[in-house]
UniProtKB/TrEMBL annotation:
The gene is gatB. Residues 351-498 form the Asn/Gln amidotransferase domain. Keywords: ATP-binding, Ligase, Nucleotide-binding, Protein biosynthesis. This is Aspartyl/glutamyl-tRNA(Asn/Gln) amidotransferase subunit B. The lineage of its organism: Bacteria, Bacillati, Actinomycetota, Actinomycetes, Kitasatosporales. Pfam families: GatB_N, GatB_Yqey. The keyword ATP-binding applies.
Length: 502
């Protein structure tokens, strides 16, 4: 089904209620894999970070990564989950071409964390509670590279290459309970939930949660049911969606696709789907198995995990300030509205602003530059704010140069441009480009006298009491000094020269 075959979004929601389930996989930032001592460092030679255990060779025995368990508990606590007093791993049997053991070590009916929730704030300030079914530990698969096809997928490829470096890297899978009642805002809720979860994961320090690098990815489960019905419809599962915008688009497309199929008398197939960034569509993957088809059974080579209550409570006490609480505190400290804070959050500017303030800049100036000039440049370049080649300390230095009168706003923008271009620190850019404000009274006086002489009619108006006309002379001086004069001081000198009072 193509985009043109869909029913309109409004028509879909007029007839059906969407029900979602979101499964988010988080790759933990541990130094070693979940069940062996192999490094998790990225971008190494293919198959160079493997051992008999993660390759599933006969006789190799796994050992649980303690930091992986600790990270799972932290995530569970931050999601208001109950932490199991006793849980164990299971083997999930399925044909995994990129999992050399041909089964995945995961958790099935006994997860380490369960029955929690996460409150998320939508763009208009409404808070929506997403209930969490479970958070469980497992391992990642390897990486398949399909060669010879036009799409990069297995269909049409001449052969495939397998890299097992990623196989065995610790994952936490966070599964929501069915999300009902979101109505037309379901795609927005999905995006907001994944965004809030990403911020929470980063705050806990258990993963960088970089979606573009696959460190965090979301499976979007969606079904429709007729208005007023209680029974859930058949669901589809759009796999491995790796950006916030794509999560929202995938949910929206599937709502329209399901509605089109159902409205035409068709039947929804329970299957996996592939998401396509170029047009926001999804296409069929494979028929989705039920849990019993995976033939789960307890992992015989691993002992159960029984976190001591003292350890759990110690981790609870050490939890950092959670993102939503932090944002509310910062909003009050900065004196901004809910709308402004949401804009800062949407721009990814919270941490850069905080770090700029920590480096000595006033809060209003830090916000001004990150949400103004720097946000504009990030948008033009199609990159995140954090990806710009300028540090919060450098932005704080620009703020300091403006505060001390060495730069005005125009010159500060040029300084930032130089830093972004790799020309050095703010002070080095100012020196190399000759951007410092002209503060020498003699030079300013000469420029003012020349502007007065060249604009005699305007000068006469000022002498006659039309003080507003001074703006034209200020502009002339600023042009003559390439914007490097202190405009306020220039105005003072003009009025002094012409015997007028400001």
């Amino acid at each position: 089904m193509t985009v043109t075959d869909l029913v309109s979004y409004d028509d879909a929601l007029a007839t059906y209620d969407p029900v979602m389930g979101l499964e988010v996989h988080v790759e933990l930032g541990t130094k070693t894999k979940m069940f062996c001592g192999c490094s998790t460092e990225l971008k190494q030679d293919a198959n160079s970070q493997t051992c008999p255990t993660c390759l599933g060779l006969p006789g190799a025995l796994p050992v649980v990564n303690e930091i992986g368990v600790e990270s799972a508990i932290k995530i569970g606590l931050a999601l208001h989950c109950e932490i199991a007093e006793w849980c164990r791993f299971a083997r999930k049997n399925y044909f995994y071409p990129d999992m050399p053991k041909n089964f995945q070590t995961s958790q099935y009916d006994e997860p380490i964390a369960y029955n929690g929730y996460l409150d998320v704030q939508l763009e208009d300030g409404e808070v929506f509670r997403v209930e969490i079914e479970r958070a469980h530990m497992e391992e990642d698969t390897g990486k398949s590279t399909h060669v010879g096809g036009a799409t990069g997928r297995i269909h049409g490829a001449s052969h495939s290459l397998l890299d097992y470096n990623r196989a065995g890297i610790p994952l936490i899978e966070i599964v929501t309970k069915p999300i009902e009642g979101a109505g037309e805002r379901a795609p927005e809720v999905a995006k907001a939930y994944v965004a809030e979860l990403r911020e929470l994961i980063k705050a806990l320090g258990v993963s960088e949660a970089r979606m573009e690098q696959g460190q965090m990815r979301c499976d979007v489960n969606l079904s429709l049911r007729p208005k007023g019905a209680e029974k859930f419809g058949t669901r589809s599962e759009t796999k491995n969606v790796n950006s916030l915008r794509s999560v929202e688009r995938a949910a929206r497309f599937e709502i329209q696709r399901h509605a089109a199929v159902l409205s035409s008398g068709g039947t929804i197939v329970q299957e996996t789907r592939h998401f396509h960034e170029e047009d926001g569509s999804t296409t069929a993957g494979r028929i989705k198995d039920n849990a019993e088809d995976y033939r789960y059974f307890p992992e015989p080579d691993l002992v159960p995990v029984a976190p001591a209550r003292e350890w759990v409570e110690k981790l609870r006490a050490e939890l950092p300030e959670l993102p939503r609480v932090r944002r509310n505190r910062l909003r009050e400290e900065w004196g901004v509205t809910e709308h402004d804070m949401q804009s800062i959050l949407n721009a990814g500017a919270v941490d850069p602003i905080v770090q700029t303030i920590d480096a000595g800049a006033p809060a209003d100036q830090a916000r001004k530059w990150w949400m103004g000039e720097l946000a504009r440049r990030a948008n033009e370049g199609g990159v995140d704010l954090a990806a710009l080649p300028i540090t919060p300390a450098q932005v704080a230095r620009v703020c300091a140069l403006v505060a001390e009168g060495s730069l005005n706003d125009k010159l500060a923008r040029q300084t930032i441009e130089g830093v972004l271009a790799g020309e050095g620190s703010p002070d080095e850019v100012v020196a190399a480009r000759g951007l410092a404000v002209v503060s020498d009274e003699g030079a300013l006086g000469t420029a003012v006298d020349e502007a007065i002489a060249a604009n005699a009619a305007i000068a006469d108006k000022i002498r006659a009491g039309k003080i507003a006309a001074a703006g034209a002379l200020v502009g002339a001086v600023m042009k003559a000094t390439r914007g490097q004069a202190d405009a306020a001081r220039v105005r003072e000198l003009i009025l002094e020269r012409l015997g007028a009072e400001g």
